[in-house]
Amino acid sequence: MSNNIKVASQDTRGTNVFDFSVPELTEMTKKLRRHIITMISTAGSGHPGGSLSAVDIITALYFKIMHHDPHNPRWKDRDRFILSKGHAAPALYAVLAESGYFPVEELTTLRKLDSRLQGHTDRNLTPGVEMSAGSLGQGLSFGIGIALAAKLDHHDYQTYVLLSDGECEEGQTWEAALSAAHFKLDNLNAIIDRNQLQLSGWTQNIMDIEPLNKKWQAFGWHTIEIDGHNFDQILTAFEEAKATKGRPTVIIAHTTKGKGVSFMENNVEFHGKAPTLEEAKRALKELE
Amino acid sequence: MTVEASTREAYGRTLIELGKQNKDIIVLDADLSLSTMTHFFAQEFPERFFDCGLEEQNMIGIAAGLAASGKTVFATSFAVFASCRCFDQLRMCISQPKLNVKMVATHGGISVGEDGTSHHAIEDLSLYCSLPSFTVIVPADAIETTEAVKAAAATYGPFYIRLSRPKTPLIYRKGHHFTVGKSITMKQGKDITIIAMGIMVAKALEAAKMLADQGIGCRVINMHTLNPLDEEAIIKAASETKAIVVAEEHLAHGGLGSRVAQIVAREKPVPMSFVNLKDRYSLSGKPGELLQRAGLTAEGIEEAVKQVIQKK
Ligand SMILES: Cc1ncc(C[n+]2csc(CCOP(=O)(O)OP(=O)(O)O)c2C)c(N)n1
After folding, report:
1. A198 contacts in B (CB within 8 Å)?
2. What is the CATH code of the structural domain delimited by A22-286?
């Protein structure tokens, strides 16, 4: 597969493939948000809200924090990113394309017949995608398996799992929370996209998950709370997570569903609805 | 022009009607009420509606507890999550104790479309048919949906009713007579029988029309109830038409085709063919494209009929 993106160096652990500054990250996420809008409106279906709330976190991981090699997606020493909230696939696809896993032009094939970019992530079809998802609440368990394998094989890669706040309702998430701490997986990091909304409304009204921080603490995790759209805070949190020994870390990232597009922000309607062409135009204008 | 209507909307509207008649009807959902249309009931009877959030397994246990306390419980999610995600809970909490829970699931099959394989419910019928106490129904259109939902409410015991995401062609009129476990012969024919369910019934009728022009007379049966199966109609079809094609929006194993074949093999072996999803996952794409790709079309049925009729 060809691409025209510059990649810094053949990676040995210790050098990042990408080492973006905060202004560069900020610039990049603008572009990625535009991709997300274009992809979903072209597809005519998809999940803009939760893609826009998560994209800053995923960008920080791929363009600053993680060791990974777009030319060698299954490089065995890579840090792993698992998108548990699989409906935010457009955000991940946009990041993967811009970092060189596949051509940016491919993004607009999203959800089309025979595209490598499925509606929800597919481990076998898309270069760079670690795990198939779409049935919520299963990603953290998979992350535990990956993190356990790293311990067994003495690899020092980190594993990052991005969860939605809705997924903190699924029982399996809490089974995973319990066992990750039990196994002392300090190489496992969960990030919760705490955008306060789920499909039908506010989590507080549908199924209250608070006090969230205290719950994770009680389950044996190191917890950090940040503004999930502030790169200084995101980067500091990932550093702190990596430095934490003896237990896993969860970063509760306070975010806004639909972030960056005024009429999508905090609007549950845009959880799983594509913008019309006119709405997409307005959104792209706001994201210039 | 075929008129289309939404089976899930028919479900939502029927729930209101049932809720008015019976105050012991309770509706549960798992954060999908806006898509499954249980929000109609929620608006009308907020005190009898519980959104369990993203907790499908928990929802099944709650449904069982309510049912054991005398309630008639409708529990709803997308068909994938209402089957695969909570199968042991269905088995232990509803099937074995035979509790009065009606699982009504929308977004069945691959006609879900663009959301892709994670959201395509193609194993659900196999799973539900493997649970001995469940009555399993796949209505052929919105009108039959209303009748099936009413019948489920009126009959004690576990039910699974599978509905679709897209609107589907109406093949019945108001006043349609529906009996659980009793198939409907849509069209008589002497050369072969097409047994179909759900969205495949309309396609079977279309295929029968095309085949009639070629001199092949097809009997078309709407086998809306998969469990208990209308064995009598199957045996009669095998005896009289001596060849059978089964069409369903499901994997090859454990669905309607397997179940019909068991009866045919036991009672009256005749050549059979199967139009289904074989042993494969689908992809993201428009519902029509995916059905076309999988051969779940009138043409697909036509071809299967022509092949099997040669073996008579
Ligand atoms: C197990 C399961 N149940 C239901 C769904 C349908 N569904 C898709 S997204 C969603 C909720 C979205 O809210 P959240 O998980 O908080 O995601 P975000 O707000 O970050 O987009 C639901 C119920 C699903 N994908 N998986």
Report:
1. 31, 53-54
2. 3.40.50.970
Residue at B86 is within a domain: yes
Distance from CA of B264 to the nearest CA of A (A): 37
Indicate whether B141 belongs to any domain: yes
Candidates A46, A114, A132; nearest CB to B283: A114
Q: Does B292 touch chain A (CB under 8 A)?
A: no
Cβ proximity of A180 and A248 under 8 Å:
yes
Tell me, what's the pLDDT at B2?
Answer: 85
Which residues of chain A have a CB within 8 Å of the CB of B58? 171
CB contact under 8 A, B119 and A119: yes
Token digits for A130?
A: 């670690």
pLDDT per residue, tens digit, chain B (312 aa), is 689 999 999 999 999 999 999 999 999 999 999 999 999 999 999 999 999 999 999 999 999 999 999 999 999 999 999 999 999 999 999 999 999 999 999 999 999 999 999 999 999 999 999 999 999 999 999 999 999 999 999 999 999 999 999 999 999 999 999 999 999 999 999 999 999 999 999 999 999 999 999 999 999 999 999 999 999 999 999 999 999 999 999 999 999 999 999 999 999 999 999 999 999 999 999 999 999 999 999 999 999 999 999 999
Number of compact structural domains in chain B:
2
Neighbours of B176 (CB within 10 A): 15
Q: Which two tokens stand for residue B235?
A: 């045996």
- pTM recorded for the entire structure: 0.96
Structural domain including B267 reads 184-309
Helix axes A48-60, A89-98, angle to 10 degrees: 40
Confidence (pLDDT) at B51: 98
Q: How far is B57 from chain A (nearest CA, A)?
A: 8
Residues B21 and B165 in one domain: yes
Provide the CATH number for the domain around residue B293. 3.40.50.920
Which ranges of A61-114 does DSSP label H, i.e. alpha helix?
89-98
From chain A, pick out residues whose CB is under 8 angstroms from the CB of B285: 111-114
Pick the residue from chain B with its C-alpha nearest to A200. B31
A93 Cα–ligand 1 center, Å: 18
CA torsion A82-A86-A91-A96 (nearest 10°) is: 50
Same domain, B12 and B161: yes
Q: At what angle do helices A22-43 and A231-243 cross, to 10 degrees?
A: 100
Does the beta carbon of A167 lie inside 6 Å of ligand 1? yes
- In ligand 1, which atom is closest to the CA atom of B31? 23
Contacts of B66 (CB under 8 A, 6+ apart): B26, B28, B73
Task: Output the CA A101–ligand 1 centroid distance in Å.
Answer: 27
